[in-house]
Amino acid sequence: MDRAEREEIVKKCTEMLENMLQDITIPRNIRRSASEIKNKLLDCNESLAVRAAAAVSELEELTNNPNIPAHTRTLVWSIVSQLETVSVEE
Fold first, then answer.
1. How sure is the predictor about 90, in pLDDT bands with cuts at 50, 70 and 90?
2. pLDDT band for position 89 (50/70/90)?
3. How far apart are CA 62 and CA 54, in angstroms?
4. Which residue in 33, 54, 79, 85 has the most C-beta neighbors within 10 A?
5. For residues 10 and 51, is the Cβ–Cβ distance under 8 A?
6. Residue 32, domain extent
7. What is the CATH number of the domain that holds 79?
8. Distances (CA, A) of 4 to 8, 19, 42, 52
9. Which pTM value belongs to this model?
């Protein structure tokens, strides 16, 4: 997988996180965490693999929150699985 493909995956993941931010059925604290994760993914000061690995860690922590709706947990797992391909490739 080349760098452009990895960047495209990160872009799709940030779009999915942005969709979570717009969903008013998701509790505010979950949306706040999603916003922070999205911002960290977009931060170009770290390598793509480091950003993806950090986001995976925080997203996995987010799925343990008892207030997260089931549909959101599924979306988070989808984002995690995509980001895991980025973090191991580099």
1. low
2. low
3. 12
4. 79
5. yes
6. 3-89
7. 1.20.1440.50
8. 6, 23, 15, 14
9. 0.91
Nearest Cα neighbor of 88 from 56, 65, 62 is: 56
Dihedral over alpha carbons 54, 55, 60, 65 (to 10 degrees): 110
Q: Are 70 and 25 in contact (CB under 8 A)?
A: no
The tokens describing 6, both together, are 């990895």
Q: Considering only CA atoms, which of 16, 12, 5 is closest in space to residue 89?
A: 5
What amino acid is encoded at 54 in this protein? A
Distance CA 25, CA 51 (A): 27
What is the C-alpha to C-alpha distance for residues 1 and 60, in angstroms, rounded to an integer? 24
Residue type, 86: V
What are the backbone dihedrals phi and psi of residue 65, each rounded to the nearest 5 degrees, phi first?
-70, 125
How many separate domains does the chain show?
1
